[in-house]
Each structure stands twice: as C-alpha cells, then as structure tokens.
From TrEMBL, chains A, B:
Upper classification of the organism: Bacteria, Pseudomonadati, Bacteroidota, Chitinophagia, Chitinophagales
Keywords, alphabetical: ATP-binding, Cytoplasm, Ligase, Nucleotide-binding, Purine biosynthesis
Gene: purS
Gene3D superfamilies assigned to the protein according to its UniProt record, in alphabetical order: Phosphoribosylformylglycinamidine synthase subunit PurS
Keyword 4Fe-4S: no
Protein name: Phosphoribosylformylglycinamidine synthase subunit PurS
Length: 82, 82
C-alpha cells in the first residue's frame, strides 16, 4: 500500500533564521506589522510503498535523517496522512 | 494576543517539481526505493498579534497571498495552532 507522509523540517529554535528575518522585513514593508516573527523551513511530502503505516513511518524517518534534514541546524516532524 | 500560524506552500500538483525529483533520486541511491514520489515545498510559521483567531488567520492569508506563495506555481494551506 502507498502511504502519504508529510514531513516538516524547520530551523532549530535557538538558531537565527535569516530567510525568516528577510520575509519579516518584507511583510512589514507591505504594512503587515501585526506579524512579529517568521521562520521558514521545508515541507516535504513522500509517497511510500510499505505494508504497514508503522513501516512507512520508519522509512520516512530514515529518509529524513539520511537526506532531508540536517540535525545540526534543523528539527523535523513526521505526520502520516491516511 | 499572539497566534501561532503554520503555513504550508507546495508546488501545484500538475507541475513538475525538479527539487522533489532530485531528492527522489538521492533517496533511491541511498537504497530507499520504497519512496516512490517526493514533492518539496516551504513550511512557514508566523507569530501574529491579533484580537481574535479569525483576524490572525486573515492577516496570515494576506501575507501568504502578497508575499509567501506564488499562485501561478504554488498552493497553500493555513493552520492555526492555539
């Protein structure tokens, strides 16, 4: 069966996020001063062939650790969509 | 009050996603052949000062339409986190 896996990869909370800061400046120039903080990360969707949801999740975790996220600078969250 | 808004911006389903294709190739080289499709987009978190959740959501929508997403190539989803 094919499972749809959603992965969110964001810069660690303690690190500066220059891209987020740039977006924040842009929003303020557009008059959206109500936005006080922005952080920008990646959103990745995978289609995974696996027998069970748990197996699909473990494959997605392996993919994230090996290629998609850099643990020195990023954290990730994995969500399964049936 | 400050609201935490999560925004997912992904390439439209009908469009090619070269970054996703590159990641897919990388995963297959790593032996993760169970992954059959990858799409890569952006995940953005905003902190929005607003009186109500509905107001915060409408500010986030405006920000997304004006700056964060390109509707020609991308679609977005907004989720509020209390």
């Amino acid at each position: 069966m094919t499972y749809n896996v959603q992965i969110k990869v964001m810069p660690l909370k303690d690190l500066l996020d220059p891209q987020g800061k740039a977006v924040l400046g842009g929003l303020q120039n557009l008059g959206l001063g109500a936005v006080t903080d922005v952080r920008v990360g990646k959103h990745i969707t995978l289609q995974v062939d696996a027998d069970t949801e748990a197996q699909a999740k473990s494959i997605a975790e392996e993919a994230t650790k090996k290629l998609l996220a850099n643990p020195v600078m990023e954290f990730f969250e994995i969500e399964m969509i049936n």
